[in-house]
Amino acid sequence: MKIQVVGVVGAGVMGIGLAQNLAQSGHQVILIDISEEILERANAQIKKNIRFQGFFNKNEKVENSENILHKIKFSTNYQFLESAEFVIENATEKWDIKKGIYAQLDAICPESTIFAANTSAISITRIASVTKRADKVIGMHFMNPVPMKPMVEMIRGYHTSDETISTAKELLSQMGKESILVNDSPGFVSNRVLMLTINEAIFLLQDQVASIEQVDRIFKNCFGHKMGPLETADLIGLDTILFSIEVLYESFNDSKYRPCPMLKKMVDAGLHGRKSGQGFYTYNVVS
């Protein structure tokens, strides 16, 4: 059975990509964030993304942006999620923020609604514990940019049911994506490895072992990676990298996850990567 209505909480980079991908695959989307200003920016960014998608895929027919945006309801009111069959949450990687969101979702959404946490590090079992539907909570770690990435890391929490996993796989299939199911552990597979790699790459800069370009070239030219770890950090967002590595440090109490002081300094300075126009590299940010 096709899922018709999907809620997306958080209109940042990931939420924007999800809303676009869902609308393009025929779903009605309710995109929620805390301010009209954020939602207006999301609306404009989706238009821009669709325009660029048409430009880069001239051989493929891309649906008109107005038709796609017509399928997305932009709102600050969580109450609209009472009609959602499936909700994907993309809030900042801070437990206090996520905990409050799930309390609202649990009170508003029907008992049958599945909650998917698009988190890079926080335990799915912990998220499920603040709801009354632990069997209907799952992790779905999407990669950026969402419309272009065919694979999703899916995470089974302690109580996640087989039925929930099956429904989540079906939604991903409707979106044109496959999934790899892993068990719940902070950082899961991808970010437990990736965040450690990026953090160590930043230590290399701090210790003046190599330049930004040299670090990235080694990974691209020696190992065939499409992007180096510092380019990847800029794409993800240095603030998100810091939040994630802090979750790993807190969760494992292991010094190998100690955030690099240079990373903290860059985040404090507002150098968050592509989205801010400056990270390890400089970018043109079009408003």
TrEMBL record:
It comes from the Bacteria. It holds the Pfam family 3HCDH. InterPro entries: 3-OHacyl-CoA_DH, 3-OHacyl-CoA_DH_NAD-bd, 3HC_DH_C, 6-PGluconate_DH-like_C_sf, 6PGD_dom2, NAD(P)-bd_dom_sf. SUPFAM superfamilies: 6-phosphogluconate dehydrogenase C-terminal domain-like (SSF48179), NAD(P)-binding Rossmann-fold domains (SSF51735). Keywords: Oxidoreductase. Residues 6-184 form the 3-hydroxyacyl-CoA dehydrogenase NAD binding domain. Residues 187-283 form the 3-hydroxyacyl-CoA dehydrogenase C-terminal domain. Pathway: Lipid metabolism; butanoate metabolism. Belongs to the 3-hydroxyacyl-CoA dehydrogenase family. This is NAD-binding protein. It comes from Nostoc favosum CHAB5714.
